[in-house]
Amino acid sequence: MSKVIFLDVDGTLIDYEAKTPASAKKAVDLARANGHRVYICTGCSKAEVLQRDLPELDGMIGANGGYVEDHDTVVMHQSLTKEQTKRVVDWCHERNIGLILECNSGRYVDDLFLEQGPDAFARYREGKGAVNVSREDQAKRIREQFFIANGEDLYRSDVNKISFVLRTYQDHLDSKEEFCDMVANTWGGKGELAIFGDLGPAGITKKTAIEKLLAYIGADREDTISFGDAKIDLSMFEQCAYNVAMGNGGKEIKEAADYITSDVNDDGIYNAFRHLGLID
Fold first, then answer.
1. What is the DSSP letter of 181?
2. Is residue 10 within 8 Å of residue 42, measured between CB atoms?
3. pTM for this one?
4. Strands 194-201 and 159-165, how do they pair?
5. CB-based burial of residue 219 (10 Å sphere; 0-12 exposed, 13-18 middle, 19+ buried)?
6. Is the pLDDT of residue 191 over 70?
7. Which residues pair with 101 in a beta bridge?
8. Are residues 179 and 218 in the same domain?
9. CA–CA distance, 126 with 14 (Å, rounded to integer)
10. What is the pLDDT of residues 211-237, one digit of tens each?
């Protein structure tokens, strides 16, 4: 029986250096050759996904569920309104917080993020196990991979979600109270450490996106398998019949898993695919 497989990206399919292990690419290629469908299910928007060196896939769920694609056909796309984006941008600037506008056309950052982003990204990578992370390299990466925008250019109508640097966890709690018409999450380092907050359209989760994709391709929930490493993946676990946590994953995702594989850089995807009989 062919399966529909959903893979988180960061910390699951790729490591925290944004590299896909060769064994993971091999596992995905072999699984698809065996008739299984493989999709990524990620918080990243399409522009960021296109910057990654990923194996060939059957489609993607991006922006934590806000964008659904099957073989280049857009199944669903829900973004923030221009007014919602403006409210969040103004709120962040009142608090002197740098932000990222995540769109399918690219990722847009302001001058505040140019100041705060290098340290935030370095702490993110260090928290995931990277060593000797250079703030200067992170600053260079931001300028190479992000567009810089300020003023009214930030008031966009095509924003899938907005990430922002957390000065303290209270910024996230305040965002939940201030923007009750949106979904508030956090993401970050080891053990679910919150380094960034993010805000996206209400009612959008990885779970709801998987439901829409399964309905579109005519697949059953009983044939689904998901892979994740963080708390944000719990909604994906709720929708799928069988769930795998990465060895490098957080406590909550491991407790919710049916199976725990090895770390992302210790052939975690390949080992789990073999364990589940998806590949020989």
1. T
2. yes
3. 0.90
4. antiparallel
5. middle
6. no
7. 108, 162
8. no
9. 16
10. 999 999 999 999 999 999 988 899 999
For 61, 179, 262, the CA distances from 182, given in Å and listed in that order, are 19, 6, 35
| Mean pLDDT across the chain | 95
Of 181, 201, 221, the residue at which a domain comes to its end is 201
Tokens matching residue 136: 């200067």
pLDDT recorded at residue 193: 75
If asked whether residues 178 and 215 sit together in one domain, one would say no
Distances, alpha carbon 264 to alpha carbons 95, 230, 237, 279, in Å: 36, 13, 18, 18
Q: Amino acid identity, residue 197? A: G
Sequential DSSP letters for 103-142? ETTEEEE-HHHHHHHHHHHHHHHHHTT--S--HHHHHHHH
Q: What pLDDT, on the 0 to 100 scale, is given for residue 192? A: 58
At position 208, the amino acid (one-letter code) is: T
Average confidence (pLDDT) over 91-98: 98
Q: Tokens standing for 202?
A: 């209400």
Geometric angle at alpha carbon 15, from 201 and 169, rounded to 5°? 45
CATH number at residue 124: 3.30.1240.10
Distance, in Å, from the CA atom of 66 to the CA atom of 15, rounded to the nearest integer, reads: 23
Structure tokens at 235: 């909604």
CATH number at residue 241: 3.40.50.1000
- Grade residue 76 by pLDDT with cuts at 50, 70 and 90: very high
- At residue 106, the 3 state secondary structure works out as strand
For residue 228, what are its two tokens? 């994740």
Within this chain, do residues 143 and 191 fall inside the same structural domain, yes or no? yes
- CA–CA gap between residue 165 and residue 178 (Å, rounded): 16
Type of residue found at 42? T
Mean pLDDT on 85-95: 98
Measure the CA–CA gap between 98 and 171, rounded to whole angstroms.
12
